[in-house]
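Class prep. Write one:
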Amino acid sequence: MIITVTCNPAIDQTVSKDGTVFDIGGKGINVSKVLRNMGCESLCTGLIGSDNCGIILEGLDGLGIPHHFIKTNGKVRTNLKKVIDGELYEENQPGPDLAKEDAEMLFEYLDGFRNEIVVISGSAPANAEDDLYRKMTELLKRNGNSVILDCSGRKLREGVKAFPDVIKPNYKEICELFEKRLEEDAMIDACFDLGIPFIIVSLGKEGALFIRDRQAYRCPAVRTEVVSPLGAGDSMVAAVAYALQNGLDTQETIALAMACAAASVGSPGSSAPSFRDIRNLKKEVIIEKIRSVPLSQ
């Protein structure tokens, strides 16, 4: 089973030329929604504000996605997303604070997993320590789990110290991680040196870079109508988790990730794309192997 960890769930309100859409969200929850449409079972866990958590939990129940959240004081945040001419503009609320005892309960629960694929994704409560995801990754990897980490800023900078199996920053986030603006070659070299087995750098309309097994690949974005770019990165993460679960090779993993992202931008709000749309778009993916690095480097 795939486990998704969302420490700051949200109710997403997406406004576009087609109207307003409300979705249950938070990056890990979005990953589980995509996995569900791909026929892959997952479990949602993490932290959730108790005051209005029913909206999220009932939404997951309606989708048939099992869940086990640690309830905290406060309310689930509502995030406003505006899609204007295919561009996404976000006004995200911080969400409830994290109490020490709630973090301890979450870690105790996560300590029960063995040899699973675990996705840690999205923001954390505003008062959470920078090393929250690093400690979470360390705990999970000690117990034989594979960890996909999708976060940003100081949480990412700390998180990579625990050597997750996969990270998926965007271009801005990878430059923040290395504290400088990077051109493609320098970025690939820096990623090789991180020592993380699989790194995906999403480049928005330009596509993505994939760095795995001492090889770097470039993929242009699959052309499709942009309805909402919200959740495209989460769909990529879902594809990678699915690929790890099903033992897909690198080329198949990359093709699936790019197709998932393309299918996602063609879906309203943060709703998950259908597996049929994903499979159809997979045929359009172009993969270019651009670099390899000798083992001696």
Q: What stands out?
A: The longest strand covers residues 42-49. Residues 2-292 form a domain with the UDP-N-acetylmuramoyl-L-alanine:D-glutamate ligase fold (CATH 3.40.1190.20). The mean pLDDT is 92.
